[in-house]
């Protein structure tokens, strides 16, 4: 994703990072962070776990009457379940950086 969206996506710890940040140049102060971890059960089955964290200005939280920011982590988990990891990440990036990608 970083290669495809270099202005929006960053890996804070480089290629071995366990999180990915998404920023929008047109929305200063808004940042989404995807944190991932891998769980392996006793049978060796692998389960990727992704969580979405939001970093937004306090004023945006006050204006968010529909609670979209508050419910974003749960909505992201639902999106991952429906679309898969890669498509969900791409959808998230495109929605945050819509004007920049046009």
From TrEMBL:
Protein name per the record: Centromere protein P
Any one annotated GO CC term: nucleoplasm
Q: Which GO terms describe its biological process?
A: CENP-A containing chromatin assembly
User: By its UniProt entry, which InterPro entries does this protein fall under?
Assistant: CENP-P
